[in-house]
Specification:
Elements lengths: L2 H29 L6 H31 L3 H5 L3 H16 L1 H16 L7 H18 L1 H10 L8
Helix pairs in contact: 1-2, 1-6, 2-5, 4-6, 4-7
């Protein structure tokens, strides 16, 4: 595979993974609700595992793109929008810890009590974090578009 094709394939994979991650976040927002029952808790628990896995793969593919693809590390390493995108993605990841821990606790509670349902306060708390993740997630394509057009270059 030549250089241009490698860049093309990595770009496609990176973007598809980000869209899938956004879909998972949307699924979690739609599923974590005041009316959650056993099946929804188990379903969101299984899907949340993929959220973490995909986030890790996105980082690997993204940094691979930044180092071996078309523009190379020299371009990205001095771009403020690249670092804003990385920082925002990491902040989304940190925010996702709260819902993940809650979902794990809910799944564990189900093992002890099959009729378990999270409290309204717990659901509202988790939903605030999910919505905060979604709000920050919206910044990622803004930073990516600015970076792709050459904005944000810091002078060394």
């Amino acid at each position: 595979m030549d250089y241009a094709m490698t860049d093309f394939v990595l770009a496609i994979v990176h973007h598809l993974l980000v869209f899938i991650l956004a879909g998972i976040l949307a699924f979690e927002i739609g599923t974590v609700s005041l009316t959650m029952k056993r099946d929804e808790i188990l379903r969101v628990s299984r899907v949340d595992i993929w959220y973490g896995i995909l986030a890790g793969v996105i980082i690997v593919v993204g940094f691979t793109r930044a180092t071996v693809a078309a523009k190379g590390w020299a371009y990205y390493s001095i771009n403020v929008f690249f670092w804003a995108k990385i920082g925002t993605f990491l902040l989304v990841g940190l925010l996702s810890i709260v819902p993940t821990v809650a979902i794990i606790r809910w799944r564990s509670a189900l093992k002890r009590d099959p009729a378990f349902a999270p409290s309204a306060d717990a659901v509202r708390y988790v939903r605030r974090y999910l919505w905060a993740e979604a709000a920050l997630f919206l910044l990622l394509p803004v930073f990516a578009a600015a970076m792709a057009r050459g904005y944000g270059e810091l002078t060394p």
